């Protein structure tokens, strides 16, 4: 019996090649989309999942609410928090702090390597986190001062071996060499870890010299992780934090700080609303994961609907086969099993094709989304292939169930007399399914257009400064010492248009600290964003002044005692058009030694457009040094100009190799998550409309075949091809219009919700909806026009000769 069913299935596939192709290919596209999106989602969800204690690890975060600045979430904490929480709360089993130090130059003999990602951590770090160890004792390797742990790649770079225990690296602390002993080597940090590092140094290096470090409060500059006891009541523990803060700081501290715990599994996908989150590799918006999942399911539903629609619509062509089978003794269950079996076979053929399509598409997705996905990931968990097979089986049964039961209900006598006409063009279920298909496809198109518009808006909005052709060069202590000489030399280069420096990179948000403002009656303390800049910062970045002047070496008091504020702070202080000359200063300045406001800069977006512009003070402290040099270059002969910058650096600086980045590339990374969402959503929307159109083409083909004699009669009576096209396409046009009406309000609701994630957003303009509806209508008409016009041009004699 099974052999007979298989033969019949193959025979029908061969006899109806077009419909079989549409059925299988559209389902394969839907399955391929689901497979690819599953790989993408599972990769995002896998972040930090390799740690055995992951369910009990939490990151300590803060909500900061200071007068004079926006309320913000930060992933930073104070050095004293971890040790004191562990000692005072039995729920806290252990803690580990992660203090990122950025790039440093290390040497071994004559070999020097710039290590980009270094961090100082507590000895408990590798007991809480399960980064795989190659050499060393996990329990003791970070106990002693000046102990370091390398990754496999860094060990190979220095020593050409991973067995580097007891070897020493050296770095220069000013003019003093510091020897660091290697006590362990780790495997390279997995790509799905939110913490990325090349080297770990023991926190005891600091605490042994400064025991009070573990009780330091007030400054947030490191990340604290807590290992909690099993089944800890998180809300109950968080409710104790206000009293904890008061006991270590002051009575009013809870007006400014609120501590809360973030589960490790939420760090990667749940931190996009953080203002200061510097150690979160490839941070991604978790809401996009849900969007991708829903979109993938919709695409699969559309493909399954195609299968059901086409199978049902083709039922009339197989009615005599069913009638004959019943007349020779086949019962209803056998007919149902036969057609369900055919449906399942087609589904598994589609699955094989889907795996091929997914395999071909994954490299493109990896390039588009910056991932390293592979089909082999499906086999890492033995349950996944089984799950895919089960889902395919369910799709086959569900998609084929209605056609199977419908066909099995034919009465053999009526069928063999030619009285069964099938569902025909008036099928309510089929029309509902077509409407559902196109409603989903139109909604995906509209959503994708708005995602692209929002991304374009963010990338092209006037952010108040010039970010193009800015080369960023990290500065070392030696480079700061030679900065003035280097600036003078660089400005002599033809391709260099300007040189400046700053303590922080624009686009990363700026740190907040205290600021004093003197009024007629008192000196008020507020907290604002601050950035320490070099004299030409405003001119190089083309930041406009609303009032006042820029920094100048002609004014000796500018260094340390002159300040430029932005318009937002001017409004916050209620000093509109009256700010110049006001007495202000840093929070640690004595009230009798404050400086003055010399300028008001027009607002510029020094953070991403996800956040509103915050209050800002721009100050000038050359003695502090700078973290990064900014060189504005001409777009002509840029590579030659960069080589000239490199040569100047190499001549003057000996404590750090030359490195550079472009500022506009940095801003690209700020919107990487949104850009990836836009690209993936575009891909899914295109697939959805392709699948829906394949189904529409199949239905148009079947409909015109079922109405072939009607078309012949109409032509004999004088109907033109245009008139016939109008008659045959009317029903499809109505269905697409209904789908559009359904899709619009639903899409508006979700778009508005999504745009709330942005402080600056594009408008919801109705022309986008009209464009999407018009596009869908045109695509639908083009899809069915070929078959309808071809049928309408047939000679009526051929279609009526049997009558």
From TrEMBL:
Q: Which residues form a coiled coil?
A: none
Primary localisation category:
membrane
Q: Keywords on this record?
A: Cell membrane, Membrane, Transmembrane, Transmembrane helix
Entries under Pfam families matching the protein: FtsX (PF02687), MacB_PCD (PF12704)
Q: Where is the MacB-like periplasmic core domain?
A: 20-240, 440-647
Q: Which InterPro entries match?
A: ABC3_permease_C, MacB_PCD, Macrolide_Exporter_MacB
Keyword Transmembrane helix among UniProt keywords: yes
> Where does the ABC3 transporter permease C-terminal domain lie?
293-412, 683-796
- Give the location in the cell: Cell membrane
Residue ranges crossing the lipid bilayer per the database entry: 21-41, 291-310, 344-364, 384-407, 428-452, 680-700, 732-752, 764-786
Topologically, how does it sit relative to the membrane?
Answer: Multi-pass membrane protein
Entry keyword Lyase: no
What PANTHER family does UniProt report for this protein, alphabetically?
Answer: ABC-TYPE MACROLIDE FAMILY EXPORT SYSTEM PERMEASE COMPONENT 2, MEMBRANE COMPONENT OF TRANSPORTER-RELATED
User: What is the name listed in the Swiss-Prot or TrEMBL entry for this protein?
Assistant: ABC transporter permease
Species of the source: Splendidivirga corallicola
* Source lineage: Bacteria, Pseudomonadati, Bacteroidota, Cytophagia, Cytophagales
